[in-house]
Amino acid sequence: MNVTARIGAAVKGLALAIGLGVAVLAIALGGVGFLTAAYYLHFSHVLGPERAAAVTGGTLAVTALLVAAIGAAVLKRTKKPQPGWLSDFGGAVGLGLRLATALVRRDPKKAIIIAAVSGVLVELIFGDGKKEK
């Protein structure tokens, strides 16, 4: 099987999986809607329509708050601590020093030329533009 056929089969499988997921989500949301309607209708016979609407709305609000709190706790536990910017900077400087050391060991002449060119670039970028006499 060539590469394009494999990619085509993978895209087709992905499209089918996405379509199936959307269909399942739509059916599940419809089911939750009907359960909410049944909950409201049950309480409307017992309490009246205004109070049943208040009970249904309050129940949905409390459920949303519980889901949000549980979701926040789960996300907080799964989040990995990120290293600070100082450690990233230190890693970059260390890598630069290792590369410079390797360059000097391989060819010292090129290292001197690169150092001179980088010094000129630094002066052009960060210099104040005034020439000394």
Structure description:
By secondary structure, this protein is mainly α. The protein folds into two domains: 3-78, no CATH class; 85-126. The chain is 87% helix and 0% strand. It contains four helices and no strands. The chain has helices spanning 3-47, 49-78, 85-106, 108-126. Helix 3 (85-106) crosses helix 4. The longest helix is centred in the first third of the chain and has 45 residues, at 3-47.
Output the radius of gyration: 33 Å
Order of helices and strands: HHHH
Share of helical residues: over 70%
* Quaternary structure of the protein: single chain
Topology:
Layout: H1 3-47, H2 49-78, H3 85-106, H4 108-126
Give me some keywords for this one:
single chain; 2 domains; elongated
Structure at a glance:
It contains 4 helices and no strands. It is an all-alpha fold and 133 residues long.
